[in-house]
């Protein structure tokens, strides 16, 4: 068996010191050193084999964090792991104490194609770090070769044009990597979908002294449409892999909870209990239902392409009732996700592996909207999540 861990880590605006990433937002050298220190320590604590990072402005800044984590791994191992001359060095507990550095790991960085480098107008990219390397060069998906046109259905009659939504590019890149783990190659997608922050047209809705509720509602609508369209672009890429029989894992900042429409677009439909109860799409009478054979076919077609939430699988098998990766305004929710194809589902007969545990690193999170709560802008405003996976077959 082969064991590995895979994690999602939104680092919150990683860029070097004295560089204005958003308007009037920079890190002093002292702040940058503190942030780098915290990130390296968090990466060391996680000790994940595969990490998807979001909100990376500079590859060099991330590489510095990774290098520092490797140095600390050496120091920690020297202090914690007994010398091999000791008779008890073979005890399993000491294997758990050891932390592998990332010196031999490979890093794939996807810069944001909309990032011009102009101070105050920067756009973040993302990255994947893999101790297993990559079986082929990772692929960046952002500017679409053909615009995505989403037509709206006519509500009455035979209207020629009920309107449509057009998407030419996703707001932040999607990074696709094929990673060799044990005797398998797993396709990993890292994403950061459009946030709920409204997209405002002109200065009016953005000027809070001239509050424009309709303009702000329209901004929220634009953001929601974009996020769901980006989810569909990601879903299209996921299906290309699944339909080739490839195991898939999807991670990142979805900016929505598990049951949001955008997340359900990514995961695909959950099969209905029995399609033989359903009225056929071409029914001629009220008793015209799908057959048992069609029910089996439909269920398999949907199940084969459905992704499963690592968090949900963990909650189902444990007594834990709450995992969260963000806190704001009294709302604690998970908007960072790890999804996986049925190749890793414990009830799938032909599974290649399954998740043994799920970790959430969220002790640093506080709800900054509460006056009594501490808040530190230098740490991440997201919790990190990690799935502990076991593959069947292969060397341990």
Q: Any low-confidence stretches, pLDDT <50, length ≥5?
A: none
Helix content: 25-40%
Estimate what percentage of residues fall within beta strands. 25-35%
- Assign the structural class, choosing from mainly alpha, mainly beta, alpha/beta, alpha+beta, or little secondary structure: alpha+beta
In which order are the strands of the major sheet placed?
A: 3-4-2-1-14-13
Short description:
The chain has 396 residues and is α+β, with helices and mostly antiparallel strands. Helix content is 26%, strand content 27%. It has helices spanning 29-46, 59-80, 92-97, 213-242, 261-267, 292-303, 310-317, and strands at 2-14, 50-56, 106-110, 125-130, 139-151, 164-181, 184-192, 248-253, 308-309, 326-328, 331-333, 336-340, 353-361, 384-391.
Describe the fold and architecture.
The chain has 396 residues and is an alpha+beta fold. The protein folds into 2 domains: 2-268 and 308-391, 4-Layer Sandwich (Deoxyribonuclease I, Chain A); 270-304, no CATH class. The chain contains 7 helices and 14 strands. Strands 3-4-2-1-14-13 form a 6-stranded mixed β-sheet, sandwiched between helices. A 6-stranded mixed β-sheet has the order 5-6-7-8-12-9.
Please outline the helices and strands.
Blueprint (H helix, E strand, L loop, with lengths): L1 E13 L14 H18 L3 E7 L2 H22 L11 H6 L8 E5 L14 E6 L8 E13 L12 E18 L2 E9 L20 H30 L5 E6 L7 H7 L24 H12 L4 E2 H8 L8 E3 L2 E3 L2 E5 L12 E9 L22 E8 L5
Parallel strand pairs: 1-2, 7-8
Antiparallel strand pairs: 1-14, 2-4, 3-4, 5-6, 6-7, 8-12, 9-12, 10-11, 13-14
Helix pairs in contact: 1-2, 4-5
């Amino acid at each position: 068996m082969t064991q590995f861990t895979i994690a999602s880590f939104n680092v919150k605006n990683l860029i070097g010191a004295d560089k204005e990433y958003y308007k009037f937002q920079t890190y002093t050298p002292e702040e940058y050193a503190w942030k780098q220190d915290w990130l390296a320590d968090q990466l060391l604590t996680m000790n994940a084999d595969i990490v998807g990072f979001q909100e990376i402005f500079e590859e060099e800044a991330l590489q510095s964090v990774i290098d520092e984590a490797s140095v600390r791994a050496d120091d920690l191992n020297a202090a914690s792991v007994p010398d091999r001359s000791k008779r008890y060095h073979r005890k399993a507990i000491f294997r758990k104490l050891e932390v592998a550095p990332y010196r031999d790991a490979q890093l794939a960085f996807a810069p944001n194609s909309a990032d011009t480098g102009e101070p105050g107008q920067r756009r973040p990219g993302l990255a994947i770090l893999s101790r297993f390397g990559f079986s082929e060069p990772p692929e960046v998906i952002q500017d679409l070769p053909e615009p995505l046109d989403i037509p709206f259905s006519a509500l009455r009659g035979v209207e020629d044009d009920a309107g449509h939504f057009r998407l030419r590019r996703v707001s932040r890149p999607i990074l696709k990597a094929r990673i060799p783990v044990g005797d398998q190659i797993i396709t990993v997608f890292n994403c950061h979908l459009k946030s709920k922050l409204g997209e405002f047209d002109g200065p009016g809705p953005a000027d809070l002294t001239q509050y424009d509720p309709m303009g702000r509602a329209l901004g929220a609508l634009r953001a929601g449409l974009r996020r769901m369209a980006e989810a569909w672009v990601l879903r299209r890429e996921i299906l290309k892999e699944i339909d080739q029989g490839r195991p898939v894992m999807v991670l990142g900042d979805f900016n929505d909870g598990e049951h949001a429409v955008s997340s359900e677009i990514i995961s695909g439909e959950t099969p209905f209990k029995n399609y033989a109860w359903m009225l056929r799409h071409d029914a001629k009478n009220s008793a015209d239902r799908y057959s048992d054979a069609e029910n089996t076919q439909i269920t398999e077609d949907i199940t084969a392409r459905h992704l499963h939430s690592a968090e949900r699988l963990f909650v189902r098998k444990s007594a834990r009732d709450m995992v969260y990766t963000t806190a704001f305004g009294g709302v604690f929710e998970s908007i960072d996700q790890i999804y996986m194809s049925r190749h890793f589902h414990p009830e799938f007969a032909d599974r290649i592996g399954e998740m043994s545990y799920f970790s959430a690193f969220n002790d640093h999170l506080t709800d900054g909207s509460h006056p009594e709560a501490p808040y530190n802008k230098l740490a991440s405003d997201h919790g990190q999540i990690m799935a502990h996976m076991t593959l069947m077959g292969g060397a341990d």
